[in-house]
């Protein structure tokens, strides 16, 4: 019963000298200064981490990954996982680390482990993660008789602080940090050998794996090592042990069990039962009568022989999301996955999806709702998330969540030597923790910490979280570990622009190699993008840098494409049968409405006329100023009826309220509550995942795939009663006027956002139906929706000319392609791997030039290359002090003690236009936290936009104000 022995007894039984035992018994792993006043010995921490890993194996790690670890370890996966997680800190047995704390260093020196003078600058010292790899690597090669076997293991030790060095980085800058003399060499050997024997292996040779994980699996395993280390480093859960006679694996197991329970940690599905009926995930769990397209997706999930990629293309409103969840259940049950991550294009689309996934997860087990995370920076304003995850907790209890969105990471630099604060994360005690046993069934708030969100069993969030896992940034392995073991669903996959798409393709390569099933959803996916997505996934699945596996043309639309690797070959298949849409195609009349004026009067006049007898009009424009102008013109024209304005310059509270109201009044459950007369004026927020039903659409011209997305809001729900004047679907395309020679002239904002070439192609395709922009011979007048969708999208992005010769399309195409290539090139510097490195079998040198992205905001800037913009909290100056945007009093200096007041204050958060960002970030702008916010976790990093008593503020050359209806108003200087 070796696990019952203390490490001192074990060392004696193994024949180590008393001198070595004395030295090892003093090596510290956690200093008293950082561990609640109690020293924790190094071997104690290694055993704690191994014990946490054992609990994770039983209650967290997916069955699929457990099988892979069993494969490479000769059937001893649990033991091997314990060993690799625990051995991570063996490099602390060196002077460079032991000298970090003078108090802790004294007994180490007294035990005979001495050192010479070390560099005064800690950044020049040998880091213990690198030291661990340097000490362990030659021993593994010698014990295993193979450099190849050790080559994929040592980077797991070297990378546990977030970055993977190259083999060249294992050479110490100063020889003395390695520890001179036989005493240090014996102590270092003893730490490794005693730990190895304590967890259950005979010796280091016995640990040798019989196979190797591929690089993506290594990255996931590395993330789990970090997770185990962080849990075992929790000073509140793992009290320090300074007496080696009290350190044992049995004791570590008791501590790990207690910590796991106390923190409320758990995984998702351990072994999900395979559904007895093929369509039970749809009919029983989701309660739907399956449509043909939904059946097709679920059938393909059943028929795929191995985990792979599924691309579902179906019209807007077809029910793709529910079909994807049903397919995810099938894939998880068949292949041993433990959870699901659903990636959405925006924060606004994530919230309704979170509600849907919550309801779905509850159908498996009501208690699992506490394992569903919402991942975006505004989740605090989602009442359901707050009810489940925060409850009635106080400000200090909420700090852990706050750190996820607001805190910078002062130690997030490759080369940091400190630890625990060294992780760039607050200790658990400073972040608050559930302290009572009765809170065990509440959510595990540990997952709310920085970089940990994807580790929850079920998660819904912006696609950025998936893209972050494909960036060469510190602790990327933690994010990737949160994806492996799940089914990954990406909705509205077409929404990723060319820059973001590089990270999406990189993510698909890694997910393909890790055997993660992925389901991609789109209504308007260009064929070239579909092919690129398939090639990326298969390049990972086949571990090849370049893969070309032509995707057969689908038999029709809707359709499902599947791709997987089998017997070393890539397979790509599309639906071979025609899958009918759940509703017949409808002739949608397409007309021009020439207008690029800035006053909004033309559109306002048409809207008023078109819904004079009733109906719901949706106006979607490409610019906030244009939306505000149209609203003003409608109001000045005396429009009677409801008008709602929805755009990105509304504060958080107003945007959420209006979005909810629109969905309630115009959504699928509106029923008799649907207004007789209403106008919604919106920007691109209404383009996708905005489940409203409009009778008439007026839209600025956009690239065809996005234009079709907007048309997806038109006559969306069956059974809706409509006035006779709008009984047939009709779209008026504006934001364009005829120019010289009939060549379209576009809104400047549209050209800046989308580029001229896609707009020219869209204008040409619209003209085929609506007739020439300047008048003349009429076109067919209609598009058949959804039947015409795939052909329109394919032609819009195809090679064949669609524009009249006088439009000079070729020049615009070359300019657009050059811009796209430049954006692709810009993304390469942040991708997790460069193309020439994809074939490398190990993680060595992965962080050859790590990103300095410190905060979530900085990381968002890595995966999105649009103009940088910042957020600010609106504060109104009034006599004697300040008020929130809704009038709530917040004191003279912004002091806020009441959480309700904090919510109201943060509800005034607004994103500033990109053109104001430079002025906003200037020190003299005044956009800094108010003095009274310094001690508040949600406010201390927030910028205050203080509106003076006249309701305005000056930013650079512009004057800004906030109107409760119009939102942020910018008056050009």
Automatic annotation (TrEMBL):
It comes from the Bacteria. It holds the Pfam family Cas3-like_C_2. Residues 35-231 form the HD Cas3-type domain. One of its GO terms (molecular function) is RNA binding. Keywords: Antiviral defense, ATP-binding, Helicase, Hydrolase, Metal-binding, Nuclease, Nucleotide-binding. GO terms for biological process: defense response to virus. PROSITE patterns: HD_CAS3. InterPro entries: Cas3-like_dom, Cas3_C, CRISPR-assoc_Cas3_HD, CRISPR-assoc_Cas3_HD_sf, DEAD_box_RNA_helicases, Helicase_Cas3_CRISPR-ass_core, P-loop_NTPase. CDD domains: Cas3''_I. NCBIfam families: cas3_core (TIGR01587), cas3_HD (TIGR01596). In the central section; belongs to the CRISPR-associated helicase Cas3 family. In the N-terminal section; belongs to the CRISPR-associated nuclease Cas3-HD family. This is CRISPR-associated helicase/endonuclease Cas3. It comes from Streptomyces roseolilacinus.
